Amino acid sequence: MSRALIFSKNYLSKKFKIKQPNELYRELLNNVKLFQVDELQKISTDELIHYIIFLGTFHERRNQGDKAKKITLECLKQYRKKMVKNSYEINSQILLSLSNVLLYDEQMVQEIINQVDQDKETLSIKDLIKFQHCLYKLNIHNEKLSDFVLQNFIKQKDQVDYLEYIHDLHIRSNLLRMGFVDEQVISILLKGFQEKLNSSQNSYFTSKSCFQYCQLMYNLYPEIIDKPLLELKPEDGNVFAPQFNDMLKDYIISKKLVDHKKSFQSIEYYLNFQKLNILNIKEDIISRNLTNLEQDVQDLLNKLSYKNARAERVMIYDVDYLVNDDIILTCNDPVHFVEDLNGKILTINPNHIMQSRHLSATSKYKVYDINYHEWIHLTEEQKIDKLKSFID
């Protein structure tokens, strides 16, 4: 937890007399009256910021889906009317909240971008990487700041640890495939990562790092997607082929750990820790409850007697529904889309674009999106016709 999140959690915990943060989060979302416009207007700017930071950055938001997004949206609408100058620490958490629940407001985001532009010489490379990641999730591309972050990344690469390198590279490699980053930029960063791999053996793997490492490899070497581990090699024309062998060992470890992990688990793997390899497996803090959209799709699939499996592992992804072993249905709820504060859909999450690209890279599967904002306007008969058009 960040210092700002701890502070906001403690403030709200004391106010509502609820110590357990997950319970506090759920209680807030169930307090409908609290987040009505007339009630929010009575709240001070400082208190609004506490709500925004806690609701938008605490991990329980991922279990609450659209409900968390709607409540955070109401808080942000009121905050926009009362905006004040904040420290970068506070503004960075507001930006993190926006990017976590995929809400965009030009005034708020531009103010934070301007602040970063003014203070960029004083910010650490770790702060700059986190800032750029927030912009990425909102599908915002600021070339000037991106170049500044890149140059500082290269200068201060010794301060960037293995996990941060993977996190940044998997984002930039996706932007490469989306047409926003040049191959030369990736090559420069890969050479630095290659040096890190060759200078010391990574000994700590997490669910997140393994998953992102696989995504990174699929972005750089799409030709290896869904290939057996003993048959992996880059194509001759791949510009990143020189780095492949150095990156292969950690990919094999990461892929095996992802394959071993169940959808409801998280893992930590320690390689050669006191001459032992230690694998810790625990239940994930993120639950996998059905959304209304997923439930509706599943009910109709069952009604039509289609063979289907929910949260089925396909490559590294737990897809929403695998139908008849070769049709992938992805249910895109509001939390998959970047929206403005008026509810207008601006774009889809770039991580969804990456997942779809990877899943579509083989001839084994056909991938179809079911988008909530289209689905909710269909009659049951139209929904059935749509599913049949995908499957039959």
From TrEMBL:
A Pfam family recorded for this sequence: RAP
Domain RAP: 327-389
Record carries keyword DNA-binding: no
Keywords associated with the record: Coiled coil
Recorded coiled-coil stretches: 283-310
Keyword Coiled coil annotated: yes
Protein name: RAP domain-containing protein
Annotated organism of origin: Paramecium tetraurelia
Organism placement in taxonomy: Eukaryota, Sar, Alveolata, Ciliophora, Intramacronucleata
